[in-house]
Amino acid sequence: MNERKIKTIIEEIYQKGFDGMIIKDINNIGYISNYFPTAFAVCLLKEEPVIYTTIMDLEFAENSSDIEVKTFKSLKDLKEILNKENYKKIAVEKTLDIETYQKISGEYELIISDLLEKERMIKTSDEIAKIKKATDIAHKSFNEVKEDMKNKKFSELAISYKLGQILRDNGAEGESFDTIIASSSSTSLPHSTPSNNKIDYPILVDWGAKYHNYCSDTTRTIVYSEKEEEIFNIVLEAYNKTIKSIKPGIKSCNLDKIARDIITEYGYGENFIHTTGHSLGLDIHEEPRIAKNDKTIIEKNMVFTIEPGIYLKGEFGVRIEDTIHVSNRGKVIGNLNPVI
Amino acid sequence: MNERKIKTIIEEIYQKGFDGMIIKDINNIGYISNYFPTAFAVCLLKEEPVIYTTIMDLEFAENSSDIEVKTFKSLKDLKEILNKENYKKIAVEKTLDIETYQKISGEYELIISDLLEKERMIKTSDEIAKIKKATDIAHKSFNEVKEDMKNKKFSELAISYKLGQILRDNGAEGESFDTIIASSSSTSLPHSTPSNNKIDYPILVDWGAKYHNYCSDTTRTIVYSEKEEEIFNIVLEAYNKTIKSIKPGIKSCNLDKIARDIITEYGYGENFIHTTGHSLGLDIHEEPRIAKNDKTIIEKNMVFTIEPGIYLKGEFGVRIEDTIHVSNRGKVIGNLNPVI
């Protein structure tokens, strides 16, 4: 990442009484060092942060890392260093697997810290630029398959492959997650998998591009019948009002409540079966979540999705999703009309 | 999966003194139930195995799961059940994240068990058929881009996208991992990422297809110069002799030694910077590893890769990889000549 960011994180580690932090998550390592491991590696964050990688990934690590790179054979080597250097309290990620946790346990305490998740919540201008670029590529690519989608000749799978190809042609590294193209009654599954069925209305597409490791995330639903349109308009109202309420200082859970209350007023509260949104960046799901139980206070330069939905089992579902950048207010990233 | 398999696993859980097992890994849940969660879910393996999923994924879980599906809101609900039903010792996966581990800790002991990894080591005929089909698709698709690759007009990225498209056209769900197309000096990185550079010799392609959730994994290196060919022939010798030595009863580490000894004899031991292979199935990397420190005894119906390689930093690298099915001997899956 950048020196200032690393310095801030290391200061916080010490402030919280840790002697260092062990990082294993690939995107956390990439966030710190710009080296995204392709094999087993860890980063030891301390005064002088160090990457430990195996000989297999060494050349790649040396080429890409902004911080010092050393080789190790196994976690035993790392443990020896920690024991020798008299560590007392070490921060670890909450995603750390228990096998590694047990392997690195030693004469010191390992304590879960959300320091990195918290740091990653506030995006730098460089990160925001990458998310915007990813979104632009995603939206442009969507427009290039829109007509094919609507003409009912192609299967969900065929269009998802085509969209994937176009995303790459337009400069993405690939999808930021498996594209969802659902149609007809399969739209009632929020995470439907594209099938060989020919596309029919309503059509729900949830897709994203990855650009310089950063994700975009958008959903559009194209409706046809009167009932579909009725549901669509409720979701659109929830989407619009929630986005209009975004500003620094409001709580995550209150944004979720705004979307949920509108949908509930229309009698579809039970059919809004997921949270209202999530942050994204290097990962497609980051903190904060725009959810009932997330009390995070929204700050400037957070980036997160707003994606209300209504799902009528056996009938159809509607979701509208955009990614929002928080400045003085919430600004939708990209300019793809939510009504297609 | 199938009833017999679930029964065996549950019997083993009890034999090992556990009152049940909590499973969170997506592919482990899919292996047991045929439901591959798209959101937060766990499987509680006990006399009557149960899937716990959130309301968001419920319809999909009910449609795909072979075992009972219940909803829960959070791990608290699960914990209450465990406490109420008087569990004493519960098995968990080694990949379980420490946050979840701490959340479900209670009046009982949670102990890492490799029971599922061990069970998944021996493939059923249905699993082997899927791996074979995935491999056939991968090999057929490779042949369809081979000439484009060799004519030096296209970039590594362009060919990797094209291969991805053809894999899907040929019936794959997608890649089983990000395709590696390296060329020229970038072949010295075992896990090189395709670039915009035009392809030149040597060309190293490491790719796989996913078919009905099962992975294939193959590597081919196309060499040109005399030195490249010399190195290629050493790797080929290691590949051939290792595969010929595969039979039930031999140890994993001994297979690694056979490959490593040959490469070392030629003076390139230091340049063989990874293990000799790994099993695969629902995951691209499964147990056993064909590695120095893996003492697993090879059994019938294991499936794993053999992939010796030599990497000359700043010059080039060569790797040859095939997936092997163990019957009375080791049989290479697919029939793509290792010499292209």
Describe the 3D structure:
Helix content of chain A is 37%, strand content 22%. By secondary structure, chain A is of the alpha+beta class. Chain A folds into two domains: 118 residues, Creatinase/prolidase N-terminal domain (Creatine Amidinohydrolase, Chain A, domain 1); 208 residues, Creatine Amidinohydrolase (Alpha-Beta Complex), CATH 3.90.230. In chain A, the strands form six sheets. A six-stranded mixed β-sheet of chain A has the order 4-3-2-1-5-6. A three-stranded antiparallel β-sheet of chain A has the order 7-10-11. The first copy, chain A, has a three-stranded antiparallel β-sheet with strand order 8-9-12, covered by helices on one side. In chain A, strand 2 and strand 3 form a beta hairpin. In chain A, helix 7 crosses helix 8 and helix 9 packs antiparallel against helix 10. The radius of gyration of chain A is 22 Å and the shape is globular.
Helix content of chain A: 25-40%
CATH top level assignment of the largest domain in chain A: Alpha Beta
CATH architecture of the largest domain in chain A: Alpha-Beta Complex
Average residue pLDDT of chain A? 96
- Please tell me the total number of domains of chain A: 2
Rg measurement of chain A, Å? 22 Å
Q: Report the oligomer.
A: homodimer
Indicate the overall shape of chain A.
Answer: globular
State the end-to-end CA separation of chain A: 38 Å
Give the strand order, joined by hyphens, for the main sheet of chain A: 4-3-2-1-5-6
Full CATH superfamily name of the largest domain in chain A:
Creatinase/methionine aminopeptidase superfamily
Would you report the number of β strands of chain A? 19
The CATH topology label of the largest domain in chain A is: Creatine Amidinohydrolase
Order of helices and strands of chain A: HEHEEHEHEHEHHHEEEEEEHHEEEEEEE
Given helix and strand content, the structural type of chain A is alpha+beta
In percent terms, what proportion of residues of chain A is strand? 15-25%
Low-confidence stretches of chain A: none
* Structure annotation, total helices of chain A: 10
User: Which sheet architecture does the biggest sheet of chain A show?
Assistant: 6 strands, mixed
- Largest interface, chains and sizes: A-B, 36 and 36 residues
